[in-house]
Amino acid sequence: MKLFGLDITRGSDTVPAAARVEPEVTAAAETSGTKSPAPWFSDVGFGAGRSTKYLPRVTPQRSEQHGTVFACCNNLAGDLAKVPLKLYQRDHNGQDVRVRDHPATYLLNTESAPGVPGSVTRFALIYPWALRGNSYAYGPRDGGGELEMIEIIQQDHCTPLKAGRARFYDFKDGADVQRRAPSRSMVHLRYMALDGWTGRSPIQVASESMGLAMKGQETAARSLSGAHAKAYLKMADQYEDDEDRKRNERRIKEQLTSPDADGIPIIGPEDDIKSLDLTAADQELLSNRKFDREMIAAAYRMPPSKLQMLEYGVKANGEQQAIDYLTDCLFHWSVLAEGMFSMAILTRAEREAGMFLRHDFGALLQTTIKEQTEALNKAVGGPFLTPNEARKKAGEKPVDGGDELNPAPNMTRDDSNKSKDKDA
Asked: N or C terminus of the chain: which is more exposed, having fewer CB within 10 Å?
């Protein structure tokens, strides 16, 4: 029926809605995660990308297999771990006074965690720091704010988190307890952190050059291990079937490659073996690996003499080589490590009071007994040191009357005789 020109029907007369037809699914959507990331995941900065698909991806585990990378990281970690990391306090006169009664001194040099020496902990922190650009350790504190221990954690299983300007870390401690600790309870070493927190390693920044070095090492290994063709065998086509031909191929190959064979294969009258030597391109590739060593050493500021790269000659004075290594390489890394150790281990009140950590590199420049004796003798007769101060540096006990400075040689004249002559 119609009312005011409109069609009015009963509810039972309504037209049923058409059934919804879903589109046919032809392929599964691509997913990206940490297990199998898509290429765009690396392009936006979440990993060491590569400019060409023909270069191997540069990762810490892959780069560690390069001998030069391992030597650089091992030298840095070993030399910074074997010298004491001492705590000083700068007084109002500007003098640095050694602080001995502090938990940081014991934890960094004696025992950092139950059963773990302090030098081992520092090595385990500096090595991944140089290799990965980041390294982590757990430093819990008691109710009074005193540091209890410095515990190394699994570097691959620590996840930094950000909440505003605050930083937190998810990790599993030595007791297999999952924790989320603030930055105040962590020791986080980071290198080349442009934002102050996200560290980058030299091999990550120079990923393309490192990829070339990895590719060169991989190619050289294949060339020398026999993955490339060493020779080719020309066989006569006089076999009844393919099985006989393959059987003869295996027999000749075993005679050529077996270590128990005498190296004299038995072949047919029409068979021929041609040897293939390394091509000029392969030989040039092997020689260019020297450049890879120099490039990696420069990235870590490592002098060639520390990597046994002696083909360009070395300085005649070994002491001068140690000084160059100290000033050009170790000071660069040690200053960064000392600053981050101080921020993580010392409280703000202690830092404001003038406390700081510093490596004692005297062990790297250890003098001989003759040089030490001559230097102390000149210092005492200078005068610069009292006899007891010099004896203390030499490990000897003080003597009576040794706390006074000896007068300089040109100030030891005796004027008593002249005064007696004038009186006469």
From this structure: C
